[in-house]
Amino acid sequence: MTEKSLRVCEKGHRYYKSSDCRSCPTCDRENKPKSGFLSKLSSPARNALVQEGIDTLEKLSQYTEKEILKIHGIGPASLPPLRTSLGEAGLAFKE
After folding, report:
1. Which of 16, 30, 38, 85 has its CB surrounded by the most CB atoms within 10 Å?
2. Sign of the dihedral through C-alpha 91, 50, 77, 94
3. Average pLDDT, stretch 69-78?
4. Residue, of 28 and 64, whose pLDDT is higher
Protein backbone atom coordinates (compact mmCIF):
# COMPACT_ATOMS: atom_id res chain seq x y z
CA MET A 1 0.00 0.00 0.00
CA THR A 2 1.21 3.49 -0.81
CA GLU A 3 2.08 5.65 2.13
CA LYS A 4 -0.20 8.62 2.81
CA SER A 5 1.29 12.09 2.90
CA LEU A 6 0.02 15.12 4.77
CA ARG A 7 -1.47 17.79 2.53
CA VAL A 8 -2.85 21.25 3.20
CA CYS A 9 -5.43 22.80 0.86
CA GLU A 10 -5.76 26.48 -0.09
CA LYS A 11 -8.18 27.01 2.81
CA GLY A 12 -5.74 25.49 5.32
CA HIS A 13 -7.51 22.15 5.82
CA ARG A 14 -5.07 19.36 6.68
CA TYR A 15 -5.65 15.85 5.31
CA TYR A 16 -3.75 12.71 4.29
CA LYS A 17 -3.80 11.18 0.79
CA SER A 18 -1.87 8.40 -0.90
CA SER A 19 -2.89 9.29 -4.47
CA ASP A 20 -2.11 12.27 -6.70
CA CYS A 21 -5.69 13.50 -6.25
CA ARG A 22 -5.61 17.05 -4.93
CA SER A 23 -9.19 17.32 -3.72
CA CYS A 24 -9.56 18.19 -0.05
CA PRO A 25 -12.18 16.02 1.70
CA THR A 26 -13.32 18.93 3.90
CA CYS A 27 -13.73 21.29 0.94
CA ASP A 28 -15.55 18.53 -0.98
CA ARG A 29 -18.09 18.20 1.85
CA GLU A 30 -18.51 21.98 2.12
CA ASN A 31 -18.99 22.38 -1.65
CA LYS A 32 -21.42 19.49 -2.19
CA PRO A 33 -24.57 20.79 -3.88
CA LYS A 34 -27.80 20.32 -1.91
CA SER A 35 -29.83 19.48 -5.03
CA GLY A 36 -29.45 18.68 -8.71
CA PHE A 37 -27.77 15.79 -10.46
CA LEU A 38 -24.31 16.63 -9.12
CA SER A 39 -25.58 16.18 -5.55
CA LYS A 40 -26.23 12.48 -6.30
CA LEU A 41 -22.59 11.72 -7.16
CA SER A 42 -19.48 10.94 -5.14
CA SER A 43 -17.00 13.77 -4.69
CA PRO A 44 -14.49 12.34 -7.22
CA ALA A 45 -17.20 11.93 -9.88
CA ARG A 46 -18.70 15.35 -9.19
CA ASN A 47 -15.29 17.05 -9.28
CA ALA A 48 -14.38 15.23 -12.50
CA LEU A 49 -17.52 16.43 -14.31
CA VAL A 50 -17.16 20.00 -13.08
CA GLN A 51 -13.47 19.99 -14.09
CA GLU A 52 -14.59 18.99 -17.61
CA GLY A 53 -17.15 21.81 -17.65
CA ILE A 54 -20.11 19.42 -17.41
CA ASP A 55 -22.28 21.18 -14.86
CA THR A 56 -25.74 20.90 -16.44
CA LEU A 57 -27.81 17.99 -17.70
CA GLU A 58 -27.91 19.62 -21.13
CA LYS A 59 -24.10 19.51 -21.29
CA LEU A 60 -24.07 15.94 -19.95
CA SER A 61 -26.49 14.86 -22.71
CA GLN A 62 -23.91 15.86 -25.33
CA TYR A 63 -21.68 12.94 -24.29
CA THR A 64 -21.93 9.18 -24.73
CA GLU A 65 -21.68 6.91 -21.69
CA LYS A 66 -18.31 5.68 -22.99
CA GLU A 67 -16.99 9.25 -23.18
CA ILE A 68 -18.13 9.96 -19.62
CA LEU A 69 -16.49 6.77 -18.34
CA LYS A 70 -13.16 7.85 -19.87
CA ILE A 71 -13.05 10.88 -17.54
CA HIS A 72 -10.72 10.24 -14.61
CA GLY A 73 -12.83 10.04 -11.45
CA ILE A 74 -15.94 8.61 -13.12
CA GLY A 75 -16.73 4.94 -12.63
CA PRO A 76 -19.57 2.60 -13.59
CA ALA A 77 -21.40 3.35 -10.31
CA SER A 78 -21.87 6.95 -11.48
CA LEU A 79 -23.90 5.99 -14.54
CA PRO A 80 -27.23 4.92 -12.96
CA PRO A 81 -27.82 8.23 -11.12
CA LEU A 82 -26.74 10.14 -14.23
CA ARG A 83 -29.13 8.14 -16.44
CA THR A 84 -31.96 8.70 -13.95
CA SER A 85 -31.32 12.45 -13.76
CA LEU A 86 -31.18 12.73 -17.55
CA GLY A 87 -34.40 10.71 -17.91
CA GLU A 88 -36.24 12.86 -15.36
CA ALA A 89 -35.32 15.92 -17.48
CA GLY A 90 -36.44 14.24 -20.71
CA LEU A 91 -32.82 13.85 -21.84
CA ALA A 92 -30.45 10.95 -22.47
CA PHE A 93 -26.80 10.27 -23.17
CA LYS A 94 -25.75 10.79 -26.77
CA GLU A 95 -25.93 7.56 -28.79
Report:
1. 38
2. positive
3. 95
4. 64
Rounded to two decimals, the pTM is 0.74
Task: Give the whole-angstrom CA distance, residue 57 versus residue 37.
Answer: 8
User: What gap in Å lies between CA 10 and CA 24, rounded to an integer?
Assistant: 9
What residue ranges of the chain are covered by domains with CATH 1.10.150.20?
33-95
On whether the 33-95 domain is CATH 1.10.150.20, my answer is yes
List, as own/partner pairs, every contact residues 74-83 make where C-beta atoms lie below 8 angstroms and the sequence separation is at least 24, other chains included. 74/44, 74/45, 74/48, 74/49, 75/45, 77/42, 78/41, 78/42, 78/45, 81/37, 81/40, 81/41, 82/37, 82/41
Other beta carbons less than 10 A from residue 37's beta carbon = 21
